[in-house]
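I have been asked to look over a protein record a colleague put together. This is what I was given:
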Amino acid sequence: MKLRDCLILLFAVLAAPTVRAAGDPDALRIGIYSLPPQSIAPFRSYSTPSIYFASALYDALTEIAPGGVAVPALAIKWEQRSATTWRFHLRANVKFSNGEVFDASAIAFAFGHLLKPENRGLPAANLVANIAGIAVVDPLTVDITAKRSAVTLPNDVAGIYIPAPRAYQSMSETDFARAPIGTGPYRIAAKDASTVTMEAAVESWRSAKTKRLRFQMIADESARVAALQTAAIDVVMPVSPDAFDVVTAAGARILEVPSASVFAIQLITERTGSPFKDVRVRRAVNYAINKDAIAKALFAGRTSTSGQAASGVTAGFDRAIPAYPYDPAKAKALLAEAGFPKGFKVQFDVVTSAIPADAAMFTLVARDLAAVGVVTEIQATNLGAWAKKHTDNSFEGLGFQMGFISQPQMNTVRAMMPFLCRSPAFPVYTCLPELEPLVDAAENATTPDRRMELERALNRAASEQALAIFLIDGIDFTALSKDVTDAYAPTRFYHWERFAKRR
C-alpha cells in the first residue's frame, strides 16, 4: 500500500467521530466540500454548490443538454408563433412538494415576480432581461413574449426555477429559502450548519429512486475520501484525479461531469492603475502559464486547455480557437513592451477544495507567473468569504477565481456576462468595450444559425483580447461507492432522482 493510502486510512480513523455512517440504508449520503453560502432560494441558485441542491428541489420550463439544446422539463413542447413570441405547453398532473397544483399561473407568477423593478437585483432577473411579458392561454399553456429577437428563448427560460406560488407569497424570501418548495424530486427535511437532509417528494413528476439525500459538509478532500473508504458516505463531491487510485482501490468509480464552464482567473481592469487594462499584459499572463501541464498532470489528461469563454458543451464553442501556447519568452517581451520589464506584484483571491485539484492548479499558476516576473500571491479562502468579497467589490488583489459558467442557458453570452461592462447582478470588474457590440449583435440575432455564428465570433474576440486568464475546460469528478447505481448528471444539474443505492 502506498504511503498516501496509509495516511488516508489513518485520517479516516481520526475523522470517525465527526464523519459517521448515518445508519440509514434508505439515505444516499453525499460528502460535499461546502453547503450553499446562502440558503437555497429559487432565484439565486446557479453556481456551485447551490446548483447541486437546487436540481433536487426545483424545475424550470426547460433543461439544457450538453451542446446547448433545450429539452423538456415542466414544458413538454414549444413552438415559435411570431418573431418575438413562443408558446409553451406544460406538463399535466404536476404538483409542488407541499401539494399545490402546478399550472400556467405558477409560470406567470415566477416570471412576473422577476420582472418587477424591485427584484432586478436577483440573479435570475438577468434571465428575464429580454422578456416583455407572459400570457396565460389556458391552465397548461403560456405564451412568452420577448423584447427583441427570441431565437434562444427556450434556452433562456431554463434557469428560471418555479417555486410554489402561494407558499412563496406567504413568507419572506429568506424564510422560503430555508424550506424551499418546488416540483423537484425532493424536499428539505432537516438542516443545520453542516448537514442538509432531503426526503423524496412523492408528489414529484420526477419520481425518486432513493428515499433520502443527506448532504454532509466535509471541507477537506482527504476527509471526504476517507469517509468513502470507511463507508461513512456514498458520494464524494468533488474528488481530485490524484485521489483516483485510492478511490478505485476502495471499489468506487468516477463519474465525469462536464461543468459547462471554463476555469479562469478574472482580471480586474476597472481599478485605477491596474496593469490588466493593457491587452499586452493580459496576453502576457496567458502566454506565461503552462496549461498543458495543468490538464495532464492535475486532471489526468481528462480535459483540454482553453482559450475561449465557451466550454466544449456550450453553444458557441469554436474548436478552431486555440489555447494560448506556453511561451514565457513572449510573455516577458509583452510585459516589457507594456512598461513592465521587471514585472509586478499581484494578488489573486481563490477558493480551494471547490473544484478538482484547484489548490495545485493555482500553485502552478503562481509558479509560472513568477518565472516571467509577475510575483503572484494566491489568497485562498472559503466560498462564503469569497462570495461576500465578490458581491461587495472588496477583493484586495487584481484578479480572482471565476469561471466562464454557461449554465443554466448553456450559451456563450451567458458565460461572459460576469466579464462584461454590463454585468447586471454584480460589480463590473472587467470592461472591454471591444466586445460589447458583438454581444448586442448576438442578442439580436434573428435566426439560430446567425446567433451561433455571432457567438463564435464573440469567442474569437474574447480570445484575441485575453478577456481573462483562460486555463482549462471545466470538468467535475464525483466519486461513487460500489453501492451507488444509475447515477445521471449530464451537466451540473444532477438528476438525483435517478441515483439508486443497493441495500
Q: What stands out?
A: The chain has three domains: 3-57+184-252+481-501, 62-167, 260-475. The longest strand covers residues 253-267. Residues 1-22 have pLDDT under 50 and may be disordered.
